[in-house]
Structure formats: structure tokens, C-alpha cells
Amino acid sequence: MQFKSTRRPMPSAWKQAGVSLIIVLVMLVIIGITSAAAIRNATSSEKLTNNIRIQNLAQQYAEAALRFCEAELAKADASRVATLAEVNIVQTAYGANPAWNQAATWTGGGGASASKTVLPESQVKSTDSSFKPSVMPECVAEKQVMADANMAYVITARGFSPDYKADVATGATASGSVVWLQSTVILN
Asked: Are 174 and 166 in contact (CB under 8 A)?
């Protein structure tokens, strides 16, 4: 006697096969969304790191300009660069609008711009690198007579990021970053 098996799969087994397909598809969607978020996060972190690097470069250029102008002012008048000679340094009265705060000083649109000094390329470019900033750092020196009749120099320096661009008409920053530093030097 022979028995024929007429077994058919149970309906619950069919339901399990359909549920596992849906679970796999949901897992693929979750993995895809997680991967996209990880890539976006990595890209954002890279942009943030680059912005910090560029800001640090602008800071270093401003510091180089500040130190250069301080060193020049410490020299005898005849040894200084021409823009920092005593005859070219503007004297600002106490309480008056300082020259460093006027756009004409930096854009060359006024008489106060005579003391603006652009750093020589040798001060910011090393001999083993071809990299140099697109806009060289610059500084302005102003004389201020102090209450005790000593002369103080207010030195304002600007350093620019490699991606810096300025509006030609106003001198305002169009893109990139600018770091401003200031020091006061008293020479007796």
C-alpha cells in the first residue's frame, strides 16, 4: 500500500515568508538612511575643520603683520620701511575717530592711508613653499600722545584667509575672513 502525501504548506508559513521580506526591506531602508546621515556628518565635519584651518591662517597672517610693524617701529626712523617713517604716521587725538577705523585708511581713499604697510612677501612665504596668501597682510600705525607726554603707537594689523575677497568700492569683506589684531607700543 502506497501513501500519497498531499501535504500542503500551512498558511502561517506563507505569512512568515511575506513578513521576512518586509522586514528585510525595512532594514535596507534604515541602513541606507544611516549611511546617508554618516556621509553628511563627515562632510559637515570636514567643512568645519577647513573653516577653522582658514581662520587660523588669517590669524597667523595678522600676527605676522603686527610683529613686523612693531619691529619696524622699534628701529631708528631712517631704518624703517617708508610707510612707517615718522612723517607718514598719522597722529590721532584722544577721543577722535582713529585712522584704523576708517575705510579710507585701508582702501587708499584718504590721506590717512600713508601709514598702511603691506607686508613684504618674504615675511609670510617660506623658501621651501610656493604658497602665499592671495592678499598680503597689512598694518597701520598711529601716534597717540599720552597724558604723561610719552608717545604711544597704536598698531592695527589685518590678516586674510586664502579665500578672501573684498568689495572693490567699499573695501568690505565679500567672502572669506579677516582677522584684526591691535597692540599699543610705548617708546620712550
From this structure: yes
* 127: its cell numbers: 623658501
Provide the pairing of β-strand 90-91 with 138-145. Answer: parallel
Tell whether 1 is covered by a domain. Answer: no
**Length, in residues, of the chain:** 188
Domain that holds residue 32: 12-187
Q: Is residue 65 part of a domain?
A: yes
Give the residue ranges of DSSP H helices in the chain.
11-74, 103-107
Quote the number of domains for the chain.
Answer: 1
| pLDDT(137) > 80 | yes
Pairwise CA distance, residues 4 & 35, whole Å: 52
**Does pTM top 0.90 for this prediction?**
no
